[in-house]
C-alpha cells in the first residue's frame, strides 16, 4: 500500500470522532500565543469543519486530484488576506501529527513519516502563496 492510501485510511480512522478536531485545535493553539490569539473570536465548530475539509483536500491532491482548492486556500491565507505566517504551517503540521498519534489506533512511526510525505506538497503549495 502506498503512503497516500495509508494516510487516507488513517484519516478515516481519525475522523470517526469529532474529538479529533477539538484536540487538534487544543494542540495547535497551545503551540503559540499568536496562534491562540488568532482564534479568539472564531466560531470553532465552523473552523473544525473547515479543517476537516482542508486536510482531506491535501490528501486528495497527494492522490492526484486537482490542486485548485488548495491554491484558493493559499490565496485566502496569504499576506493580503488572513495573513497566516509561513512559519505557522510547521506548528500546524506538528499539531496534526500529534493528534493523529492520539486518535489513530494503528499509529506507528512509519505512518507518521507517511503523513509527513503526503502533507508536504499541499502545505508547501499553501505556504508558497504567502
TrEMBL record:
Protein name: Globin
One of the record's GO molecular function terms: heme binding
Domain Globin, residue spans: 65-120
Family note: Belongs to the globin family.
Organism for this UniProt entry: Marinobacter halophilus
Keywords assigned by UniProt, alphabetized: Heme, Iron, Metal-binding, Oxygen transport, Transport
Pfam family, one: Globin
Top-level taxonomy: Bacteria, Pseudomonadati, Pseudomonadota, Gammaproteobacteria, Pseudomonadales
SUPFAM superfamilies tied to this protein: Globin-like
